[in-house]
Amino acid sequence: MNHRRLGRSGLSISEITYGNWLTHGELVGRDSALACIRAALDAGISTFDTADVYALGAAEEVLGEALRPVRRSSVEIATKVCLPTGDGPNDRGLSRKHIMESCHASLRRLGTDYVDLYQAHRFDERTPLDETLIAFDDLVRQGKVLYLGVSEWTAPQIRAALDLAEDMGLRSRIVANQPQYNMLWRVIEPEVLPLCRSAGIGQVVFQPLAQGVLTGKYLPGRPPPEGSRASSAGRAPRFIRRVLGDQLLERIQQLRPLADEAGLSMAQLAIAWTLQQDGVDSAIIGATRPEQVTENTAAAGVRLSGDLIVKIDAVLGDLVDRDPAKTAQMMAVKPAWSREQA
Prior knowledge:
Blueprint (H helix, E strand, L loop, with lengths): L2 E3 L6 E3 L1 E4 L10 H13 L4 E3 L8 H10 L8 E6 L14 H15 L4 E6 L8 H13 L3 E6 L4 H14 L5 E4 L14 H8 L2 E4 L30 H6 L4 H8 L2 H7 L3 H10 L4 E6 L4 H8 L8 H11 L26
Parallel strand pairs: 3-4, 3-10, 4-5, 5-6, 6-7, 7-8, 8-9, 9-10
Antiparallel strand pairs: 1-2
Helix pairs in contact: 1-2, 1-11, 2-3, 5-6
């Protein structure tokens, strides 16, 4: 497993990050979740990503339990704050109250004194930005947070935070951004990526497999295979089924010969492509079985040829979405490959 510096910070993270969104505490039982995390550690992954909202805290608890036997300084733990964790008016957002209370709750669930990376899960229009930045800065000064990041912020929102932190003389700054990014969903390329590269902010991207669509397991004209996320209970089908359509799935199958040419599985091809994009420091993978972790981590260190990348772009063509207005919308709007176009 290779490691890369996170943006211009001094923090090294593994090329592949293990994340537990929509899995631990929701789709995957405790024993399977623990086995997946052990497989990640065995594969050399040192960076683990979660959030307070994932399974309403259960995902953090499972991660904390799995990492308890591991020397704390040998891993990097990232979590997030902003999305609703309860029904109260202060159980969401980026107010000082919610940030402080959520951070302390996350530390308890994770069983640690500090997190390496604390991320604003979304931008909060209702809270003054200076209040949010001061609260984060205080957590850094207290030693409960080492580095700061954001997730699914637009370029103007990131720019505003950088400028305000400088104007206020805050010592801590944003060093990481966690956007959705893959072969199909490239909405960060026009605005977010250029800004982050110039500001020294690294990308730790999620959904490199586009909800599993880029693995090729979903076939045109056929129902989702048994055991896949699209066929399961919970929230996963809602996220996946809205982007499944025969037009997309037929194009995905055209990537299979390219994966064969590179000696990779479809999943490995998608992850390797993501890791090769300028500005991306790590790609987050999830898993429901340990063997998925083993397969996906084999993409670390793989270098795709320029010709192969050109061929991938030619196959996907007009299905690639690069609209910067869709940043932070998590494909809630109609993507270029939506079912309506199938």
